[in-house]
Every structure is written in structure tokens, then in C-alpha cells.
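Review box. Two proteins, two foldings.
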Amino acid sequence: MRKFFNVFILSFVLVIFPLVLNAGDTMRSKNEISHNLQVKLFPEEHRLSVKDTITITIPATSRHEFNFLLHRGLGPESTTPGVTISKEADGHEKTLFDSFKVMLPPGLRTFTLQYQGSIYHPVEAFGKEQARGFSLTPGIISDDVVYLSGSSYWYPVFDSKLISFSLEVELPHPWDAVSQGERTEHLKNENKTFAKWESPEPQDEIFLIASRFTEYIRHSGKVTAMAFLRTPDEGLANKYLEATSRYIGMYSELVGPYPYKKFALVENFWETGLGMPSFTLLGPTVIRLPFIINSSYPHEILHNWWGNSVFPDYNSGNWSEGLTAYLSDHLIREQQAGSAEYRQTTLQKYADYVLSGRDFPLTEFRSRHSSPSEAIGYGKSLMLFHMLRQDLGDKTFTTGLQDFYQKNKFGFASFNDLQKSFERVSQKNLGNEFNQWVRRKGAPKIKLVSTNIEKEKDGFSLSLGIEQFQAEDTYLLQIPVAVTMEGQARAWQTVVKMDKKHIDLHFHLPSRPLRVDIDPEFDLFRRLDPGETPPAISQALGAKKMLVVLPSNAELAMLRVYREFSQVLEMFGPDEVEVRLDKEIKRLPSDRAITVLGWENLFLNEVISTLAGYDVKVGLKDLRIGKTDIPMENHSVVLTGRNPDNKEMAMMFIGTGLAEALPGLVRKLPHYHKYSYLAFEGAEPANIAKGRWPVLDSPMTAFIPFDDGTIPGKDMAALAQREPLASLPQKFSGRRMSETIDYLTKAELGGKGLGTEGLDIAARYIAQRFREAGLQPAGDAEDSYFQTWEENIEGLGRTLKMKNVVGVIPGKKPEFAGQSFVIGAHYDHLGLGWPDVRDENKGTVHPGADDNASGVAVLIELAGELRN
């Protein structure tokens, strides 16, 4: 997830509802089973009726007896003469399915089953929510929605790895149905809906999703973009349809032709981010979050290459989540010049969540079910692909991806197959790389242990000592080194090979070194030292043990809410949580994470003291973080530091003046896991500020003192510019411009006069468009596009809170480092005529189409082009 939820549903079958068949009853070649399903859905009755004509394509002389699984209570019968079906002994009392044996007459390979019954399993939470848990159902037919997958056993599941199917669905009006593949028939009338979906492409399960959808469709080349929304919203649908075309275009060029004829966005009834073959199922809130369209959505689109057409061989490890995360979540940050921070966060999650006893090799990853499993299966895996790319170069790496896709399309593939493809195109033996990163658990620990310089006739000699200090065996590493030199704007960079626990390096440099940085852009998978990363919520939630300290001086009602907060925190966070009153503790321990609750807490000052060095000040009624003032009244705050007696343990403070805000706050904490501080407003609570403290003392950086002993305070020089692996095709869209103009001039905004709600609505709309165009926010608070101030408006007779909407495109080339395009525009107008309008027009709405709306629309389109 991503990134938002990022759950690959194929894994549910294996992890939660495993297929259990006769060990000798195996089919292993492609498309050995095809289904021709005719389905009638009765949502009000939670029931379906099915006729399934099944064709088995293995030779007729090979076998006549097969086993299959079907949801309990569906009672299959065959209408084909000579075919007998018998129920197997019930050895799986807790499973969803019954096991059956079918006997076929000699020479027969096509037969028909009929069955009917109820499937209704409510949605339940799954996994520990240290960092985004999720909910799921094995299958449900309700009066609001239908969700059926392979793990529902709603069709006969044979022990065949891949199947093909056609699916005819009849259901009441105004319902509609979605599945993978292509829709070849679609009829709707006032009584019923009929839809036919066909997938000649091999699949590993069959999905059937239904609800009262409003459908939107757009044809783009050979691929049809579709959107099925449970709440009609043409504007939202158009944004997703356009994004579908652009991302499919980018990935088709990067990896290979899109494998299906359509991709559909489908709105679910519970919060999900699921990627199925040729469609994605997103929850009603998720689908409307402005950042999803350029984060989690491309992740699910890319799964059509990795996971939904090249299927992972789960027995040897699921590689598809890491590769998808690298080519979507990481690539998007790379396009925004933020990939180094993304990798730092990825490595920090591994360090914070994958503690002793939680680690395992990539060959054992099946699906995400906890924060440690995500940190390995997504994080370590994406770092593997990043290191391969750094070693092989962009061109060879891309050729390897294309080779892997071409040779394994619509088949199962393993890490071994990935290794073969990259070795084939690079002509390099990658056995060491795959052995240590895929088949071995753990991570290297490295540090810079010594630096020394000597003056030479034509420059300086720099000597470095680097150590691997993990207890396990040595790793073979390619370690980036950057040296900042006196009088040089760009750093001197190299990559050194390390194949033992300690190496000594010697470099000749043209100018005096001022600082040395090892792995400055976090290109190497390793276990970070706490000094390399800022304190973060993940360090607290990832701890094995946590002590929660309650404020004994709090009012009884607030104290009760804090206790309830602590109980929920245990569900979302550490393995063991102890809750104590502050007056019961003499000294905070150093062997576990600490969470201090409440401004009245006796240990407040002790936690605040851990923030020395960061730009935060706590007063009696408010606190200031950087330039942001946050009043305690009506606000909630989260601050993280490190235990001074054990830097590997977090100290977290949570304070609020609103008891009713705490339930929402504890639910939101896991979603802000990477941040050092948070501020929320109101009972909602709504986030108004978030950020990460700066890194103050990294052991991977060494400053080289001058002769008088003073330490140079120079920042790291500019590093070599890297190009993204792929660029998203941008189109200057006249249709999108018209939509922007129409929105900003609609009568409901009342002319966008100063101080009006209509002007605020317009500002939020423009900010959302900035985000969709990929502009970075440049507002007062992090992740905000708004710059606000108060001004006395002459002629209006009062002071107004004013608001600019500002986005930034950072300079990408080295010569533009530290420079940016700043995007803003005049978007307010005359409202109902103030201050300058003809008398005859006073009191009428002045929409401002030419004065500002058209200019804003052009600017947004231009910004999208400039960003690339």
C-alpha cells in the first residue's frame, strides 16, 4: 500500500484460505481448466445460482478422476450423462469449502455442474496495524455489494495453477457486474442487467464484483479505461480515466505491452486497495483522497504486469510486491526528486519494525500481514531491485525487466527466473547478489570508522576506514562514497567494493576534503544506525515492548479516555504494552519504548528534553514547531524523541485538550508512521502539521577538522543528477482546462469574492489540481499549498484572513540545485460586484472566466508539462 493499502489479493488464498486437495491430484500445465459460468445473483437473499460448463484440456487417456473444492452448502450436481460427483470425507471443519470428487466417462473432457446457495461472510480486520492494517472478506453477497474471489470458492476450484473463463452474469436492475478480462456483452433494462466477461488469458482465480454502479468509459488506443462508481461523480471518474491512459502508456513503454484489453477502477464498499487482473478495487474514502491517483493507483495498475500476468511462485517467495513498489511508489518519488528520502524511510521501517525474531528471507515472503512483513516483502525487495539497477545501469536493468516479462507472461515465475533474466541481458553472474539479498535473512551494518587527510603537491590524499559490524557473515557490498571539497560546488563521488568486514580506502583529491558521506542517498539495503534517521512514530509502534505513562493529575473523564487510548494502542503497535500512572514510576526505563500521555504528565519535561536540538518550543498554552504556532486548546499533538539512555528506544508524547479527539488520533497514528511530529485540530481530528526532525549526528558522515581544530560547517555538496527510470507522458488537455474553468466560474462559488466561502472552495480545488499535476506544496505547513496571512482591506472595513495557493517545481539539473519554479496565480474575483463594478451590475455574480479562471487553467496545464 501505498503506496496506500497495496494488498495483493491473490495471496489471500494462500495465506488465509489455503487450497487443500488430494496431494496426488495435481495439474501443472497452463490452462488445464476452463470455465463457462452462467450466474444469477440474488443480492437481497445473499444467494447465487450457477451453471458451470467445465473443460479439462489434459489428454483424455491420462485421468478420469479429479477433485475440486466448492463453498460449503452449494451442493453441486452434474447434468452431463455418465458424470458422477461424490462428496469427500469432511476433514476440514473450519474451512469455507467442501471437497468433491468427479468421475468422468472415458474420453469425456467437458461436463456441466449446477449449484446454488448462500455466501455471506462480513468484512473483518486482518493483520496487526502498526503501519496500515487492512480488512477483508473471503466472500460476500449482500443487499449492497457482491465480492467473490478464488478464496470464496464460489466456482469449482481444481488443483490447476492457471485457468481461463467466460462469465455471464444476470442480476437485478440497477445493479451491474465487473470481472477481469473483456466485457463482450452488456444489456440493461428496467428489470435486470446482463453482462458477459471473457478472459482467454490464463488466470489463477476468478473475481465477480457487483453493486449499483454508475459506469464511465473512455477508449484510448487498444485499451479501454473504465470506472464503476457507487456514487456518481463524473469529475472524479474523468481524472481516473485520464490517469489510467497515462500510466498504462508509461508502463507499456517501460516493461512491455499492457496484457489486457481494459483497466477498470471499481469503487468498493469497504476501504481497500486491491489489484486484480485488469481492474482495481478501491474503497470509498481511498478513492477520493487527492494523492491516491498519483500514488496507490499506479501501483495497482502496474500489478497487471507484476502479479496479475506474471504470477509469483509463492512457494519460493513473492517478488511481485517489491518490484511493483519499486516501479510505482519509488518511481513516482523519483520523478519528484524525492527518491533518496523514500529509500531512507524504507530502510527506517526495516530498522524500526524488523527486530530480533521478526526477520526472514525474501523466499519466505507470501503477503503483507504486519509491519515487519511489509518492511521485508515490500521494502527489502524494492531495495534489491534498486541495487540491481545501480549495478547494471538503467538500460540493462530495463532490458532485464522486459526479458523477464516477455519470457514469463501468463505463467508463474520465481526469484530464480528474475536472476536468469538479469544475468542473460547483463552477461554477469548475479549469484552472490541474489543469495545474500533473497535467500539470506538479515542486513549488513556499516559505519565510517576513520578519516585522515594529507597534503600533497597537487592536491590531497584522503584515507577512510569502513567496517561491517553485523554479527552475521560478511556481505558483498557496493558502497557509494561522496566527498565535499573546499571550493567545489559538486561532490566527488565513487562506488567502492567491500567484501570483508573492514576495508581501508585511499583517494587522491584535487581540493581539501571538508566532509565525507557514506551511502548519502541510501542506495544500499542495510540496517540503519539510529543516528542516520530522525526519531519517528514507527520506532515507537515497532518496539517489542512499550510503557504507556498516564497523567495522574488529569480529570477522571480524560484519564478514562487515555486508558482506552492505551488499549487500542496495544492492538496497533508493540507486542507488549504496560500501562502505568506517572506517580507510580520513579524513573523511565531504557529497555522499551515510552509513550507519555497528557500535558499534565509528570514526565512531560523529561520527554521534551529529548527534543533538544530540534526547532520546537513548548509554552504554557501553545507550542511552536519551526514557524508554526499550535495552540493547545482544540488541538492534539504527537512528538517523538529518543531515550537518552538507549538511542534505539523511542520516547513519544501525545497531548490533547479534547478527549473526543483521541479515538480518531489512535486510528490515524499508523498512517503517519514515518513522521517525527504531528498536529491535529478539532475532534475529527484533522491533520494541520507533520514533519520529520533533521538528522543531527549521522555516523555515516565525518567532518574533517581544520588545522586549528575547528569543524567545517559546510553542507554536503551537490550530488550527480539522476534521471528517473521512466517519465509519465503529459498531455496538455483542452478538456481538462475546460473542466477547471467550468468549476472556478460556477455560480455556486458566488464570484469568489474576498472573505467568502466560495473563494475558500476555489483555493482547495486549485490545491488539489496542483497535487494532481505533481507540484510540490510550498505553503506554511508541510504538505500544504496554502500561505496565509491577515490583512485590513481598505473599503471593506474589516480584517480578512488571506490565502495564496503556491506550488513548486524543484530544479532537477545540478546547475539548478536549490532553484525552483514557483507556481501561483490570481484566483479571487469581484464576488457580487465589490469593489469595482458598474452600478447596473452590482449584486450579480461575477464569475471571472477571463480575469482569472482561464489563466489558472492554463497555468496548471503548463505546470504539468514543466514538471516532466
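Next protein.
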Amino acid sequence: MDTVCLHSRAASIPLRGGKAQGRVVNIVSYGDFLCPYCRRFRAVLKRLRQVFGDRLAYVFRHFPNERAHPGAEFMARAAEAAGNQGRFWEMHDALFDREPPFTDNDVREIARGIGLDMARFERDRESHEVHARVEEDLAAARRDGVTGTPTLYVDGVRYDGAWDFYSMLDVLERPVAEQIHRSARAFANLPASGGLVLILAALAALIFANSPFASAYYGFIRTPFGIGSPGSLLSLSVGEWFSEGLLAFFFLLVGLEIRREITAGALSDPKVAALPVFSAFGAAVAPALIYLAINRGHAVSGWSVPTATDIAFSLGVLALLGDRVPPSLRVFVAAFAVVDDIISVLTLAIFYPHNFEAEWVIAAMVTIAMMFALNRSRVYAIWPYGVLAVAAWFFLHSAGIHGALAGIVLAAFLPARPAPAAGPLLAQAATALAALEHAESELEEGEDNPVFEWASRNLSAASGRLLSPADRVERAIAPWSTYVALPLFAFSATGVRLNVDLSMPGASGILWGVILGLVIGKPVGVCATAWVAIKTQIARMPEDVALRIFVGAAFLCGIGDTVALLMADEAFPGADNSASIAKIGVLIGSVLAAALGVAIIAIGSPISGRTVSTESN
């Protein structure tokens, strides 16, 4: 998590500045007295304090790296011991002003020089209280994902930008663009932000579809948009583009996460990976059986409607639950939903084959084979995979298969390079920065720096090697998928009219068959199949997942929307209200399944707290 709260870990944490009237800017720095980069950043901090004066409140928290800087923890304890006598900042400045290495006598000399009671200083330095303060800072840093020094937080939000004076000045002065960026990032850092936006978009669709603006809403969703004449392969409605086009980005992210977990995460154990596969099959069969037990005649064709889980909404609700849900369970639900989508695609292709075109499937397979060849040839450029992914999307769509599955295909073949050795990259970056520093000292003010372009290329190459092509794609599209693609898809998919005739023959059977299929059939299918697979040792439960949490997630798998609504249209293609009734059943069943899942999971306590806190004295 990226937030730090400026309130108390202990009353003794000193604060520098922050006494001005009006708006005060808070900086929290996790540092190490022996870290050379902390020493360099201190020069920037001094300039910032000159500009802001008491409008800048600065807190220093300890993150001594004993492995890299032996003696760093000893320095931290010396500063805390000086703080017991009200001389923290004097010791802080003296330690940073003096070049390491430090001996015990050097520290005593500094302590005497700032006027400390030496007997008390010696006692405090080794006291349990001082040890505990340093350990508390270390524990807080680890909880918050701090891995190096200095790590900075500005007004509670982690700062990962450049450390130079003018970059920091822009952040602290907060021009309009920076305020918008910080506000957006603060919202995005909320664990539930993505799920909240998704649910709000779905509610907006329902409101519009059942309001005086319904004609405008449906007119927008059904507006033709594409290439070619109406009815051609690429002439789709706006809603279809949201579903098949934008949703491909979400499937790409899900595929990358599952691939990462299979390679080195929660699904790396074959038995753990088998659990979502078996559960997905059980979750398709049980709802269909419940629906068929209730319905007869014309209504029987709707058996497929409650078999589909909506991955986007299921993961959105899990996001709303935050730390109550272990990461391994999110991975299970994501893997389950992908298998569920594959089953749904096969259901559409086998039982509703009027749009299925086998020749386009062959073309899609050829495209997938080309991606595989690129991957095996270690082609690390991203654009060839992107071009082939677009082609795969077109072929899948033309074959009558949901084109968004091209995202899963792309995720499977985007290259993931081995982790680089840090030494050569460090040498490359250090060489570039040293050349810049040397050139800067020799140039007259205002003169162009001819080394800049060369250094920029080397720094870009070194930083670019830290991320594989798959990692770069994931970082680039994640915010667009969460806050643009998924909400637009939800807005187009959930706009269902609620005023339908429930008195027609078979209406109640369709409605209850879909509702019970989602609310009862899905969780029973997930849990029963998982129980059998685990008892027969075919599969294994993910680590850190309690039975109650798993059952709650099984109910969340009863959230159906996109494909379920599509199934309703395919199952009831006539002009009567059967498709609309089935869709209302999907909405009611999804809400009930979500409510039950959230209630079951929310009974327990969050897994862990993630807030780092400091005191402003």
C-alpha cells in the first residue's frame, strides 16, 4: 500500500518544521544514516526547506540496511538515544554531515559535541525502548512495501518520482495537474476503488434503462460503429465494442496474473491449479440441473443462462473486500472464471451454432501458432504480438467466439524474460549518471549538455531491462482496464428493463430457475466438486484460505452478467419476454449471490493492517 498516516507511533517521534499557519506539506522519509543516496537527497531537502520554511513538516523514520551498510542500526539507535534528550535532529544532522565509516568513538565524539549527557546516552542506546522504536519503524516499512532508501511519502502518498529539486518542488507546490494526478492516485490506491467504479457504472446503466432516458441509453448502446457496411464483420454496435473490444484488455490482465501465478505463485502447484478447473465444471453442471428441474417445454432452452460467471464483477466485489480476502483466493476466482468463460464459449459454439464458422477458428489457430513461434524465438519486441493479437481477435469474432478471449491468448505468449543480474545494470546506470555529473560540472550555465542524450539512452535501457515485455504491458494497461474498459463494459451490459410481464406461461419457472441456479447451483457446484477433487487428492486448497472464505468466494462465483445475458438472447431468440425475464433473473440472482458471498467473507477480521503511522510533535 502507498499511504502513510502522520499520526502517532510514539510520542517521541520528532518533527522538523510544520509550524506555519495554513497549509503544511508533510514529507516522511524512510532512511539509513549510512546510505549514500540518503546523503545526496539531503541536499535537495535542504533547498526545499529554504523555499518552504515552516510550511514543510519533515519526519525521518529508520530503515537501516545492515546487510548493505553494517552499523546502520547502531546509528539509528544513536539518533533515538539522542532524541531522548531532545537532540534527535542535532544527531541526525551530525551523522549525515560526517563521512562514514563511523567508529564507536566517532559516535561518542558527536554525542559530546552536541551536548548530550554521556552516561544517559550510553544507557539509552542499548535500552529496550530504543531498540523497540527502531524495530517498529522497520516493521512499519516492511508492511508498507519499503525496499530501499530513501523512500519518500508526500502528504501520506508514496512518492516514486524523480528526486531532483525541481521535480520535488512541483509535487510540493501542487499545480493543478499535480493535484489531479495525486487525487487520482490516492483514489486508485484504495483497495476497493476498481470494484466501486464498476458497481457504480452498473447501477447507472440500470437507472438509465428504467428512466425517461431509456431511449437515449439504448440508442447509444445500439449505435452502429465500425468498418464497412452495416452487417459486415467489423460493423458492431457501441455495446458490442465495449463487450468484445474493451473487455479484451481485462482478459489480458487476468491472463497475465494467472500466468504469473502458475509460473511462480499460488498456482505453481499442479494440484492447486487443478482446483479451479474442476470447480468450474461443477459450477456449470449444477445450475443447469437446478434450472432443468424447474422448467419444462419452451423454457427448457434457457438452461445455459445460469451457468456463466462474470469474471469482472466477481473480482470487483472481491476488491471491495480488501484485506479480508487472501491473494491466493483472488487468483483462484480469476482462474475459475477464465475456465468458466471457456466452458461458456464451448456452450455457445455447440448448442447455439448458428454463428459458428469453423474456417475462422482455423485462422485463429494459425495466428496463435505464430505467437507461439515468436515466443520460442525470444522475440522481445511487443508490437508483433500486438498485431497478431488484433488478428486473433478478428478471427475469433468472425468465428462466432467472444473476441475478448484474444486477451487470454496474448497473455499466454507475451515474453517474460529471466530476472536480470543487478551488477551489470548498476554499472551501466552509474556510468551514465557519473558522465552526466562530470559534464555538468564542466559546462557553463545555459550551455547544452552533449552527454545527456547518450546517458538518457543508457538509463532507459537499464531501467527497461528490469521489466519483461509482459510486465510493461501489464503496467501500461492496468489503470485503463480498471477505470475505463470495465466501467464502460458494465454500463453497456447491465442496462436491463425491469418492467416485464411475469404472468406469461413459464415466466416464473424461467425467473426462479435462473435465480436459484446462480444463488444455489453455482456455490453448490463449486464446493461439491472442490470437495471431491480434494478428497481424492486430485486437487489441493490454496494456502491461507479458510473454509468459510472459500464458501463465500463460491457464492461470489454466482455473479453472472455478460455471457449470462448473451446466453439469454441466444436461448430465447423470439419476440416474447422470455429473454428479458431470464435477464432479470440474472440480475436478481447476481445481487443475491454477491450479498451472500460478501456477508460470509465479512464475518471474519481482515488478514492484516497495512497502515504506517507517524507522530507530528
